[in-house]
Amino acid sequence: MKVLVGEVVARLGDPDGVIAFDPSSFPKRGTHSVGVKRQWCGHRGKVDTCQVGVYMGYVSRHAHAWLDFRLSLPQEWTRDAERRQACHVPEEGQYHTRHDQCLEMLDLWGAQVPHGWVGGDDALGRHTRFRQQLRERGERYMLGVPCTTTMRDLEAPLPEYAGRGRRPKAPWQAVTDWRKSLKPDGWTRLTVRDGEKGPVGIAMVTRRVQTRLERKRTGPAERLVVTRRPLADDRALGSRASRDATDQDTRYRYHYYLTPTCVCEAELAEPSLSELARVIKAGACIEASCKRGKSEVGMDEYQVRTWHGWHHHMALSLMAVWFLIGETHRGQQVTPAFTLPQVRYGLSRLLLEVFCTPGVDDICRQVQRQLLRNELARFYHHRTRKCIPPHKLRREIQ
Question: What pTM was computed for the model?
């Protein structure tokens, strides 16, 4: 993995990059594969039998890629010597929480990977100890939190003082109840990126808040970020890690995030909304990387049960994705509309050329037809939204 991290940093390294963590599940039917357990399966959106891997990714302004991974070994596996022996789990393969695995990878690669933010979904952000350990490491994070999070609005007007006793403070309330009390003009709409079907935008609102720690202790001041997207917009900006990751009304779906106001007792400048939107989008990029690995290189298509077999397959999958990313970037220097699935298609057909294809010319014609079809579809979706997209094909292809 050291070679992979070095190549990713050399090509994508950015001081404002985002290190993003994402647990990904792999559904299983039996009970003999290493680390399998009935647990929350994000792939199926319910509790089911699955394996879970914790992945560390990197997102910069250039592209996004995976860096490292860990297998989440359930606690009952540490006490079952027979299953450990059957799956060849080594002695160092012990139970660690997913937050500890993320911190382990961050401590291992954080100094080598230039970054300004750490991101993750609500499966990580809901744990106050994980956020505290990131602050102690001087890391600026953007972590999702569940819609049931209890908070206190530090910018709300305080109740009137009665003249005796302690001065009143803002009441504790769930973020969902606080969001419902917002005025319609309190939201700011931003365009996150130019999607294939038109500009992708979200509405945002931020507020300085306090949350509760374990045993109902009051936590430090943090900044709450709430995003809003129409229910009809299926181009999600983030994954759903649990049942209470988001909430919705009749028109919109809402996501909640927390980011620190100070790290290592040093006050941080308030980031702009565009900067916050960029970091939130990084979570969607890492989710897209996971889907890309599963659809293009078969990251979830394995028939291995042992500890070493699973790790070997994942390492090869991450390297295969990085190879395709490099070839895609090289092709985009000639044709910006070139995509990673088309690179994978061309390579797969080229490897089978002697058996079932007429030649390289046939592959080029097929890829050219796909490019033209995608370009026409992109222009159609943009026209329906009354906007003109930039051209991504060379004139000789058009």
Answer: 0.83
